[in-house]
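Protocol step 4 of 5: obtain the predicted structure for the target chain.
Materials: sequence only (see below). No template structures provided, no constraints applied. The aim of this step is simply to have a reference model before the mutagenesis design in step 5. Sequence pasted as it appears in the construct record:
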Amino acid sequence: ESTALGSCSGDYTITRTWTATDECNNETVHIQTITVEDNGDPIWDIIQSDLTVNCGIDYQTAYDSWLDSFSGTDNCSTPIVTHNAPATVSCPDSVEVTFELTDACGNTSIAIATFTVEGTLHISDTFENDIILFPNPTEKYIYIKGLKDDTKMEVYNIAGQKVLTRKISNGKRIDFNLNSGLYMVKIISGYKTTIKKLIIR
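Step 4 output (structure tokens):
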């Protein structure tokens, strides 16, 4: 009996040779070939469900832990997990991730899950009330008053996609070219953050 390895750890061929010999040394030979193929998909042990967190926690750390929590096993090898997730998330944000569990012979199992960061923030009421965004509704520009420190503005559409990022100063005109609709404007000033709704006509 001899064994020949295949292209991966789950594939191999066993060759068994039988020889029948009589007293006059006449022989009859029979050869049996057994081919073993790994066609079985690996199995998920842990598939995390969709996860939603808010901006008041360390959502990037929660996102990284969530990505690393998917795992599985295989009958012939140790499978690996890959995914198409972006490296970072923002607030608000929603990311649909496709995970692939792949064994050494290329058999795969797919899992799809969504990680969402909601724009629910722990903020200072005074800071929020001091920030004034106008005109609203608008078409091509806005002003923001009440800013004291270096401030950044992020604009998200209703699908949670970031469409604009810009450094801003108190009371200075902010020009843009966005399609009409409802947007969320995230204003980040030092350690304080607030979100304002913006309607573009």
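Step 4 remarks: Helices lie at 59-68, 125-130. The first strand starts at residue 2 and ends at 5.
Proceed to step 5.
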